[in-house]
Each structure stands twice: as C-alpha cells, then as structure tokens.
Design goal:
This protein has 191 residues and is mainly alpha-helical. Helix content is 80%, strand content 0%.
Length: 191
C-alpha cells in the first residue's frame, strides 16, 4: 500500500510541475522560469524538480511532449473524421487563429530554448516529426485529389512553415493579411 501511495504522490507532484511549467511558459516564458518559481507554482518542494526531472530543461521538454500528445490526438481525430477535407482544413485553421495561444507560446518558447541547448533539439525534432507524419498522412489524399504538383513532403513543409509564420506574427499582435490569406486558400480548396 505504501508503494502505491508513493507512486500516486509522485505522479501527482509530477503532473503539478508539468501543469505549472505549461502555465509559466505562457505567462513568463522559459527565461522567467526558475526551479523555485516552478515549485511555488506547483505547490511542491523545489527539490522535486531536479529529483523527478533532472533539470528545468528536461521538465520543459516533458511539458511540450505531454501537451503535444494531446494536440496530436485531437488532430488525428479531426483528420480521421468522415467529412470533406475542406471542413477538416477549416477546423484546423480555426484552431490556428483561436484566441488560445497556449500551445504556440509553449512551442516557440521551447524552440528558443533549444537554440542555445543543442541537447534539447533532439526532443523537439521528435515532436516536429510527429506533426509532420500526421500532416503527411492527412494531406496524402487531398494532395492526389487536388492534383497538387509539388511533392507531398514539400506541401507538408509549406503548411508547417505557413502555420509557424502565422503563429509568430499573431504572438507579436500582427494579423495583417491573415484573414485574406485564409479566405484565398479556402476558395482555392473549394474550387
């Protein structure tokens, strides 16, 4: 019984730290996150950060992986749904331009962190590869049906960099031309 309690307590503390990291990445960015701040936000002893995760960076990467797993599941469900591709695209674009920028902030904060921590790039590359695989699968049929001449891998890369561009601009309060671009793409997909 004691081992079960310890495992439950550890699991609860880890989840609290991951939740806290997610909130702090959005609110203050990775540069504003310290071990003490993480622990205070999670309501746990600050020694648990390093005990459970080894470092703040490892905790932040786990935060991204956990967050991404939820979003990839949502996207898989969306692209597996029995509806026309245009409706799937519209739903994905509503997610992209929604008021909630939590994922965007988490992803870009950790991208910036990885620029100066090469050991973190591998973890971020795995997350990126999951998104690419998901989009490659989702776009394979529309790619054929629409007769898009560029290679599928190039199309997926274009969509991913298009998303990042919109995300970066939106986080800087720049939305000029976004609605017009999305409307043009919608018309093109509909024709």
């Amino acid at each position: 019984m004691a081992a079960t309690t310890k495992t439950s307590a550890r699991s609860a503390a880890e989840e609290a730290l991951l939740d806290a990291a997610e909130r702090l990445l959005v609110d203050v960015g990775y540069a504003g996150i310290t071990t003490r701040r993480l622990a205070e936000e999670a309501g746990v002893n600050n020694g648990l950060v390093h005990y459970y995760f080894g470092s703040n960076e490892n905790l932040l990467v786990r935060t991204l992986e956990r967050f991404t797993k939820r979003l990839i599941a949502r996207q898989r469900e969306l692209y597996a749904a029995d509806m026309p591709f245009i409706e799937k695209w519209r739903t994905a674009m509503r997610y992209l331009v929604s008021e909630d920028v939590t994922y965007e902030k988490v992803w870009l904060e950790l991208q910036a962190l990885a620029w100066n921590h090469p050991e973190l790039r591998e973890s971020l590359a795995r997350v990126n590869a999951e998104w690419r695989a998901l989009l490659t699968e989702a776009f394979a049929e529309p790619h054929r049906e629409l007769g898009i001449e560029m290679p599928l891998e190039a199309l997926v890369s274009l969509v991913m960099t298009f998303n990042i561009g919109i995300i970066v601009e939106r986080l800087g309060d720049i939305e000029t031309g976004h609605a017009e671009l999305l409307e043009w793409i919608d018309r093109w997909l509909s024709s």
